[in-house]
Automatic annotation (TrEMBL):
Catalyzes a trans-dehydration via an enolate intermediate. Its EC number is 4.2.1.10. This is 3-dehydroquinate dehydratase. Transmembrane segments: none annotated. It comes from Sandarakinorhabdus fusca.
Length: 147
């Protein structure tokens, strides 16, 4: 991939970060995560485009866009769609761009239905359980893909 662009895609309910179940997801908002990632991306010589939608189809369209724009990588926190979306699974398989799956919490330490991910099988890797730092770790991993 020739691009230094990384799409950071966020699924349902992630617009509520900071106020939704802070004991699980922390107090960071999506805006504060975006600011952290923008600073980190600049230091790494990368560009990020952070987006959020509560609609599965938007995420599918954005994954397709990542492929057509030849992005370096996609960082994807699909939220609850992780556990239910075959459409996201298929969209990831359909693009040549590596996808890094991210979760703020550790899904395996939570309810049983969260133990299954339709994303993991087609993602380049998964980072979970480190709160907002999960995104930063994923961005570091994406930067390594340039080499």
């Amino acid at each position: 991939m020739s691009s230094n662009l990384i799409l950071v895609l966020n699924g349902p309910n992630l617009n509520l970060l900071g106020s939704r179940e802070p004991e699980i997801y922390g107090h960071d908002t999506l805006d504060s995560i975006a600011m952290m990632l923008e600073d980190q991306a600049a230091a790494l010589g990368l560009e990020i485009d952070l987006r959020q939608s509560n609609h599965e189809g938007h995420l599918v369209d954005w994954l397709h866009e990542a492929g057509s724009r030849q992005c370096l990588a996609v960082i994807l926190n699909a939220g609850a769609l992780t556990h239910s979306s075959i459409a996201l699974h298929d969209a990831i398989k359909a693009i040549p761009v590596p996808v890094i799956e991210v979760h703020l919490s550790n899904p395996h330490a939570r309810e049983r239905f969260r133990h299954r991910s339709f994303i993991s099988a087609v993602a380049r890797g998964t980072i979970s359980g480190f709160g907002a730092r999960s995104y930063a770790l994923a961005l570091d991993a994406a930067a390594q893909l340039r080499q």
